[in-house]
Automatic annotation (TrEMBL):
InterPro entries recorded: ACP_syn_III_C, ACP_syn_III_N, FabH, Thiolase-like
Subunit structure of this chain's protein: Homodimer.
Stretches assigned to the Beta-ketoacyl-[acyl-carrier-protein] synthase III N-terminal domain: 108-189
Matching Pfam families: ACP_syn_III, ACP_syn_III_C
Domain Beta-ketoacyl-[acyl-carrier-protein] synthase III C-terminal, chain residue ranges per copy: 243-332
Region (ACP-binding): 260-264
CDD domains: KAS_III
Protein's UniProt name: Beta-ketoacyl-[acyl-carrier-protein] synthase III
This protein's pathway: Lipid metabolism; fatty acid biosynthesis
Broad class of where this protein is predominantly found: cytoplasm
Protein keywords: Acyltransferase, Cytoplasm, Fatty acid biosynthesis, Fatty acid metabolism, Lipid biosynthesis, Lipid metabolism, Multifunctional enzyme, Transferase
Native source species: Belliella filtrata
Source organism superkingdom: Bacteria
Keyword Transferase set for record: yes
């Protein structure tokens, strides 16, 4: 049986930098309040007419392809994680496929929000293990800023979410080579409405109307306290699950790359696991929470900064809407 290995990573973030000071001018908030509750100092929002989920994912994918030393023509499967596709239908995977010029290659879309990239990574990993595909492009990309409630009522979410794209190339390698050791996926739909965007939903008599657009259901809703309480538990659980599945101790981790949901969550998990600063990668301070894009963006930045070395034990973990949570353990 083959194993899958990440051989190239890339990312793209929009040019438009949104500072806490800017947000303070459009809603009742301030830099101290945002930093204390989220750790975020600034984030990137897309420029309408310039950036799309497709264009951002194309830039990230081309960088990952270049770093992997392959051609787009070598890709035989695309797994695309996003909850903010350019079109309601079809999904974004086929739009990226078209831009890459690899028509005929299958494209699968994953809608698992903040856990989306690890879910997508796991799907790609299984297809490679079975021998069905040899080179898989896995993408996480989002434009969240256009769905945010930028009023005082929506400030708890509006200060967090941001836009960007990240990509990874997975290739089939021999079982004795470095690569993905295991992935672990979970969900609990009992909490679906604690972090969700209700409309436009297909089960309404009229899917979209001026009345719906004016309702709170058309904006992102997040019960921050509930999300935080569950996240700190599930993050730790799923990381320990990955370590136990591979008979490893947390001291073996060379770098933990958590989903960038909130710096307080990352710091809590770091403290609970007794990991030093150099073993945890965070970039939420400058890029905010880009949902499915956070982990591949973080991996790409960590690679650029020389924090991913041959054979290092890397742990990825995420928690988000659904609720869903997931982890992956791999040797770089």
């Amino acid at each position: 049986m083959k194993k899958s290995r990440i051989v190239g990573v890339g990312h793209f973030v929009p040019d438009q930098v949104i500072t806490n000071e800017y947000l303070s001018g459009i809603m009742n908030t301030n830099n101290e309040w945002i930093v204390e509750r989220t750790g975020i100092e600034e984030r990137r929002w897309f420029t309408p007419g310039k950036d799309t989920v497709t264009s951002m994912s194309l830039a990230a994918s081309n960088l990952a392809i270049k770093r992997a030393g392959i051609s787009a023509k070598d890709i035989d499967f695309i797994v695309f994680a996003t909850i903010t596709p350019d079109y309601f239908v079809p999904g974004n995977g086929v739009l990226l496929q078209r831009e890459l010029g690899i028509q005929g290659v299958p494209a699968l879309d994953v809608r698992n929000a903040c856990s989306g990239f690890i879910y997508a990574l796991s799907v790609a990993d299984q297809f490679i293990k079975t021998g069905m595909y040899k080179t898989v492009l896995v993408v996480g990309a989002e434009i969240q800023s256009s769905a945010l409630d930028k009023s005082d009522e929506g400030r708890s979410s509006a200060v967090i979410f941001a836009d960007g794209a990240g990509a990874a190339i997975l290739k089939a390698v021999e079982e004795n080579q470095h690569g993905i050791l295991s992935t672990h996926l979970h969900a609990d739909g009992d909490f679906a409405e604690e972090l969700y965007l209700k409309d436009p939903g297909s089960s309404r008599e009229v899917r979209l109307s001026p009345e719906i657009v004016d309702q709170p259901s058309f904006k992102m809703f997040m019960n921050g306290n509930t999300v935080f309480k569950h996240a700190v538990v599930r993050f730790h659980e799923v990381i320990q699950e990955a370590l136990a599945a591979n008979s490893l101790d947390q001291s073996a981790i060379d770098l933990l790359v958590p989903h960038q949901a909130n710096l307080r969550i990352s710091n809590y998990i770091q403290q609970k696991m007794g990991l030093p600063d150099e073993k945890v990668f965070n970039n939420i301070m400058k890029l905010g929470n880009t949902t499915a894009a956070t982990i591949p963006i973080a991996l790409s930045e960590a690679w650029e900064q020389g924090k991913l070395k041959e054979g290092d034990l890397i742990c990825l973990a995420a928690f988000g809407s659904g609720f869903t949570w997931a982890s992956a353990l791999l040797n770089w």
